[in-house]
Each structure stands twice: as C-alpha cells, then as structure tokens.
Amino acid sequence: MSELCKVLIVDDEYIMRQGIKHLINWDKEGFLIVGEATNGEEALLMLEKIKPQIVVMDVVMPVMDGVELTKAVHEKYPEIQIIVLSGFDDFMYVKETLKNGAMDYILKPTLTAEVFLEALKKAAENIPGFNFTGDSNLNLNHTLEWYISGYSNIFMVEDFPEFCKENNYRIFGVDINYVFGNDEDAVSKFRKDIRKLFDSIDVIFARTEIENRNLIYVFNYDSCNEKEIIERLHTVAENVKHRNPKGFFVLSRVFDDIQDVRELYEEIESRIDSGFYYKDLSVLHLDNCNTEKKTIPKFDYNDFSYDLRNGEYEKAMTKMYSYVKECIEARDDYEKIKNKAKNFIYSIIVTLEEYDVDIDIMRKKYFERIDTTIFAAEFLNELKEILDEIKSVFENSITGTDRIMGNITKYIIEHYMEPLDLDTIAKQFNYNYNYLSSYFNSKNYEGFSGYLNKVRIEKACELLKKEDMPISDISYAVGYSDHSYFCRVFKKSTGYTPSVYRRRFR
Q: In b/e form, how buried is each residue of 458-486, taking b as 16+ CB within 10 angstroms?
C-alpha cells in the first residue's frame, strides 16, 4: 500500500483553508492533510512534529509571510515542496518565494480542483525518496468510509474486484478516543501490528476512520482462514490491553455481502465504546451478542432537588446512587454516566456553602477521581466512597461546628511531623481557608501556627526526656527542618534550650 503524501495548509483566512480542504478527495488522490496554520511562524513550529512533505501556503500573511516562510523552510527542510497561493496583485511576492525555493504557485482566482491536484502531484513526484503512485486501496478506504457514513448509498463491487473476491467479511473496530486518547504513537503501532500480522495470510482489508473517532478494519477472506484470522486479531488486541488496560475491540459477525457493511458497522458502533463494562475482555464478539441496549431509566430530578432543599441529604444521595447503578446496568454511554454523576455531586456539595466549606476544592477533587476511573465496578466503588465522604462533611457541619476542631486537632496530632500549613489542612478537610483561620483564633487557640508549634514542642519534650537522640534529629522528627528555628521556638515555649531541658528534666 502506498504511503499517503502529507500536506500542511498555511493561510490566515479560515474560509480559504476550509475551501482547500474540500477542494479535492484527498485520500483518494493519495494525499493527507496533517495540519493547518494561520501564519508562517505557527507553521514553522509545527514542521518538526507533523513532518509534512508538501506545504501549501498563502503568500500574504501576518506575523511571518510566505516569502519569509519559504526561505526558512527551504534552508532547514530542503526536501519539503512548497506550493504558493497568491492574488493577481501579489506577483512580486511570488517571485521572491520562487527564488527562495518554492516549486510552484497558483493564482487564487484560477484555483480549481484540476489545477490544484496537478500541482500537488507534481510536488509529490519531486519529493526525494518518496514513491508517489496512486493506490486503489486508498480509493477503497475512502469509498467504504463514505458508504458506511451514509454519504453514498452504493458500493460498486466491480470497482474493487480484488477486495470482493471472497464471500466472507468481518469488521474489527476500536474507539480511538477511548483506548488511545491522544497517543498517536500507540495508534500508529496498532496499525503496523495489524498489517504485520496479516502479511502471511490470504486476507485483504481496508482501513477506515469514521468521524476521526472509530477506526475499523473490514476483512475479506477465505472461510478456511477464519480461525487463524480471529486468533491473530486477538493477539493484536491482547498486546494493546497488556500495555493499556483500556484496550478494547469489537469483532462483527461474519457476513457475505459487502453491501451489509453499513448495517454491521452500526452494530459495531453500538458497542465499540463498551470497554468500560469489560475489564477482563480485549475483544467483544458480536456473533452471539445482543446488540440492543436496554432502556435508560428516567430520574426524578425535582424529587432529588426537593430532598436537598429540605436537608434530606442521605435520602437524595441514595436515590442518586441507585439511579447511576441502573444506568450502568442498562449499559449507558460511560461518558454520559460520569457526567451525570458529576452533575449530581455538584448539586449536592453546592448546598455546603452555608457551612463555609470550599466547594471548588471538593468539586475538583471529586471530579478528578471520577474521571480517572477506567471500569464500571471501579467507578461505582469510587462514587460510593465520594458520597460517604460528603455524608461525613454534612454530619460534621450539621452536628455542630465544634466538631470541626476536634477532627482537625486530631489530624495535626497524628501528622505533626509532616510539613503542615493552614492551606493544606483546609484542603484536607474541604474548608474555606479564611474561615478556618478565623475559627482557630476565635476558639482561643494560639492561631494555627501557634497550635502546631505547641504540639511539636510537647512531642520534642517527650523525646528529650526519654531518648538519647541528637537534638538535631529530634528537631527533624517533630517536623522542623531548620534546627536553629526549632531551638528558638523551643526556648520561647519552655524557657530552656533543648540541651538544658534534657539535663534538667531527664
């Protein structure tokens, strides 16, 4: 299969870039748009990463124009072919770009698909070491994509006799966003692994991406190779899952008419993002699988809101958790479920504002925990823990604010040896920083720093009485990284230096 020739489009006008993108059938003709830039400077920054072979650029642009860009590209990347677009009045600029290394130019008013394609092919043939040939497989990929997506209602078998020579077809699909995210290297490796595994077996396949999300392979093969094909697909899928726990693929049932590929893809699409529900499965076979989704239950949000307004927090949270469980049982879209849960959580914690709880910190913390869950069971456990934590905050807030200090002072006593400050404590307990500071002072504590020092000095006194540790080690053990500061605080609190205290009270 021929390699697609990679093209970067550089033009400060959005409409122009869109026009160029839709001017020709790019992959059918053997080209691939790998990026867009609005000026020369932006284009230069992109070159090393996306490595285009052809740059199509406007000559008049802000920041860095086409003349400067052509010169910079030619000096650093002489193998890149440059096609310049210009107006009638820009010919002086065009001449400069040609001097600087551009290989061709097109006047925008005369820009047609035929003219543009001719320039692209000419540029592709000039790329050092690049064998540009049109490939029927590229056309097959595009035709399949358009047919599956509904842009075309006819797939002409006679146009692809090589691909349609056998009576057995299967579709193998993956949700790129779910499994690979933005890891383009992982996607590239997956594609190479697919091709490598089928080099030695009589199978023909087309690769198609639907809406830049679902990557599918349509296989045409002899029935005698059925077992080996499935085994090899499992090998690829399991290798991906070994590296990435979200690795999940869907294999269609076998079909004998390429015209059915759209229907079979719809079955694939209904389950392709279901990896959330299959922790231990790398390939879901649809041969004997019910592809119909259960009805998603409805939720009485008014009833939920009523409970919150009336302080029935536990009741509201129980209703919410039960509903989310029902959505999971119905195999609802995992992103929808997570978003529903986050909306519910926010509705709940916003009612804590009156208790001086920092709801922004809570929201961020809880949302991150939900987003990082990979599988349904893990998500439900995390959600239950979050709700239990929120219940605890409600209990602490409702039963009396005096319990606040009890929990905090207990935490300080247990963690006095660690780096602690009021901001850390506020975040730990989901309280507003300013409120907590004033609370410490209002309760006749010495302020937060004073209370922390008091705890640490008391612990230091115990160690000085009982242990033979060097005073510098005691300083570190009770949370002071600065030995001199420890000695000053100790003397201020006890009236003695640490060494004198040890001699006097041991």
A: ebbbebbeeeeeebeebbbbbbbeebeeb
Structure token digits, residue 107: 């006047």
Instruction: Using alpha carbons only, give the angle 11, 27, 166 rounded to the nearest 5 degrees.
Output: 170
User: Alpha helix (H) ranges present in 399-478?
Assistant: 402-415, 422-428, 433-442, 447-466, 471-477
Rounded Cα distance, 445 and 57, in Å: 69
Distance CA 391, CA 195 (A): 53
Beta strands 214-221 and 168-175 are antiparallel
Residues, the chain: 506
Cα dihedral sign, 424-425-426-429: positive
- Widest CA span of the chain, in angstroms? 102
Residues paired with 207 in a beta bridge: 217
* Edge-first strand listing for the sheet containing 249-251: 203-210, 214-221, 168-175, 249-251, 283-285
Q: How far from 480 is each of 393, 409, 411, 454, 485, CA to CA, in Å?
A: 31, 18, 18, 13, 8
Q: Which amino acid is at 416?
A: Y
CA distance 91 to 224: 63
CATH 1.20.58 fits domain 136-285: no
Decide which of 3.40.50.2300, 3.40.630.30, 1.10.10.60, 3.60.20.10 is the CATH code for 403-505: 1.10.10.60
Right CATH for 5-125 from 1.10.260.40, 3.40.50.2300, 3.40.190.150, 1.20.1250.20: 3.40.50.2300
Q: Would you write out the chain's pLDDT as a tens digit for each of its 506 residues?
A: 446 788 999 998 888 888 888 888 787 778 888 888 888 888 888 888 888 899 998 888 888 888 888 889 888 898 989 898 887 667 777 778 888 888 888 888 888 888 888 888 888 888 887 766 555 555 677 678 778 877 667 777 877 888 888 889 999 999 988 888 878 788 888 888 888 888 777 778 777 777 668 888 999 898 888 999 999 999 999 999 999 999 999 999 999 998 898 899 988 888 888 899 999 999 999 987 765 667 888 888 888 887 777 667 888 899 999 999 999 988 888 889 999 999 999 988 887 766 667 788 888 999 999 999 999 999 999 999 999 988 887 776 655 555 566 678 788 888 889 988 888 888 888 777 777 787 777 655 567 888 889 889 989 998 998 888 899 999 999 999 898 999 999 999 899 999 999 888 87
For tokens 């070994």, what's the residue? Answer: 242
For residue 255, list its beta bridge partners: 169
CA–CA separation, 171 vs 173, rounded Å?
A: 6
